[in-house]
């Protein structure tokens, strides 16, 4: 079909066809088989086993071709300004409306009795998870719900104050004085944070045989008041963990549709980015790129480890090591130590080790040493050239399937990405 298009549209389509072949050739790991001989055999074994390739080969290709060159990408600086992952909010529910004091009176029925209606209830404030909201940036510091309306004569009740909804992203944890109250992880999940005050009673309510003309009314109750902390924890199945400059963002770009900033200086990434890896059976696995961690991060060095809350929910970890550094295995040791400082046994989640920058000559020697030193599976890749990313994508799927079999049916299941 592309050939036909090339004929119809002339040189422009000829170029597209060449470009497609070039990218597809790279993607299926055809070049340099000697360098990736181990991984190449794994991939072909997987194909042989299943008969079809599990990976949607168009995903990396599509993301490469999809980008509109005229449309500038958001810089990390701009993203930082827009991405807010914690907020403190003061919530004040509406007060109840006051009850009315009035008496019925009409010609020939001068003393018709009390007819003051009750006041309406104050509005409540509800925090609601919404999959279309991506950050807490739009959350205001103070929310006040509508007060209930007062009752009136002729037994008219006051209108209830309407409830206020605060929409937060999926994965928002609501805390009060540092203690978690609720975890909003499903679309549409609600938490009634503060109750509106009850409406007051009108004098009709106090009518009795003893008192046929009560003048008593009650004011509405005050609405509840609370100060809560909202904390967003990015939800992804896999988390890319590594030292700065190890190529996490480049890798996320290579395997998913996300476009995090990539640069040759440390701490380029300041916020987590989530990318979706798509498979041919329409399964989607979310992979999060986390800012770089350095030795001593738990002592607040570098960017600290507060952002590790974002990988608390990741079901498996992908440690990205830069094989061009002198001792990549020590990076792994430091990373595990820092993770355990944040949450004990965090580093013992199902994991894979990604040996990145395999296109560089110095990386090849270190690969065998790394394999000898670690017990986990090591996947050599080059995020820059895209070599062997297919094996990584297949391994992510294996980890994901293992997670689904193990605990997927239980609670804490991560909702589908859309
Ligand atoms: N040669 C080579 N360079 C790479 C590869 N992957 C990434 N790089 C380069 O390494 C540098 C850092 O890449 P990033 O993807 O920004 O690294 P990062 O881990 O996200 O860094 P931080 O965001 O600072 O934590 C960039 O200059 C990339 O071009 C690779 O496979 N081979
Ligand atoms: Mg980065």
Write up this protein.
Residues 236-401 form the OBG-type G domain. It is a peripheral membrane protein. It comes from Betta splendens (Siamese fighting fish). Plays a role in the regulation of the mitochondrial ribosome assembly and of translational activity. Displays GTPase activity. Involved in the ribosome maturation process. The longest helix has 20 residues, at 389-408. Helix 1 runs antiparallel to helix 2. Helices cover 27% and strands 18% of the residues. It has nine helices and 14 strands. The chain is of the alpha/beta class and 418 residues long. It folds into two domains: 83-234, GTP1/OBG domain (Spo0b-associated Gtp-binding Protein, Chain: A), CATH 2.70.210; 236-406, Rossmann fold (3-Layer(aba) Sandwich). The strands form three sheets. The protein has a six-stranded mixed sheet with strand order 10-11-9-12-13-14, sandwiched between helices. The two termini are 31 Å apart. It binds guanosine-5'-triphosphate and magnesium ion (MG).
């Amino acid at each position: 079909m592309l050939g036909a298009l090339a004929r119809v549209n002339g040189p422009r389509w000829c170029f597209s066809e060449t470009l497609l072949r070039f990218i597809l050739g790279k993607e299926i790991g055809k070049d340099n088989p000697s360098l990736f001989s181990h991984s190449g055999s794994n991939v072909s074994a997987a194909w042989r086993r299943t008969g079809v390739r599990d990976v949607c080969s168009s995903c990396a290709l599509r993301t490469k071709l999809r980008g509109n060159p005229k449309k500038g990408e958001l810089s990390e600086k701009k993203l930082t300004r827009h991405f807010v992952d914690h907020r403190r909010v003061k919530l004040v529910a509406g007060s109840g409306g006051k009850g009315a004091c009035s008496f019925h009176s009409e010609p020939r029925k001068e003393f018709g009795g009390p007819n003051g209606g009750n006041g309406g209830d104050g509005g409540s404030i509800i925090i609601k998870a919404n999959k279309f909201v991506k950050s807490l940036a739009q959350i205001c510091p103070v929310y006040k719900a509508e007060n209930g309306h007062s009752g009136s004569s002729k037994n008219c009740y006051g209108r209830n104050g309407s409830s206020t909804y605060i929409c937060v992203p999926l994965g928002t944890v609501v805390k009060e004085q540092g203690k978690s109250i609720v975890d909003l992880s499903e679309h549409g999940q609600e938490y009634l944070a503060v109750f509106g005050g009850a409406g007051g009673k009108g004098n009709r309510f106090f009518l009795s045989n003893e008192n046929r003309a009560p003048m008593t009314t009650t004011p509405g109750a005050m609405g509840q008041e609370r100060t809560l902390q909202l904390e967003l924890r990015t939800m992804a199945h896999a988390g890319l963990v590594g030292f700065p400059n190890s190529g996490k963002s480049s890798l996320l770009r290579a395997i998913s549709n996300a476009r995090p900033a990539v640069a040759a200086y440390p701490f380029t990434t300041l916020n987590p980015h989530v990318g979706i890896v798509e498979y041919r059976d329409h399964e989607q696995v979310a992979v999060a790129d986390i800012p770089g961690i350095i030795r001593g991060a738990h002592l607040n060095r570098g960017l600290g480890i507060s952002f590790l809350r974002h990988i608390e929910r990741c079901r498996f970890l992908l440690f990205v090591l830069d094989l061009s550094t002198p001792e990549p295995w020590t990076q792994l040791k430091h990373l595990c130590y820092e993770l355990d400082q944040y949450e004990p046994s965090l580093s013992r989640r199902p994991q894979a080790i990604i040996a990145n920058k395999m296109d560089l000559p110095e990386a090849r020697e270190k690969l065998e040493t790394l394999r000898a030193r670690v017990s986990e599976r090591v996947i050599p890749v080059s995020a820059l050239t895209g070599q062997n990313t297919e094996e990584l994508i297949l391994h992510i799927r294996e980890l994901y399937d293992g997670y689904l079999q193990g605990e997927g049916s239980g609670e804490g299941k991560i909702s589908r990405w859309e």
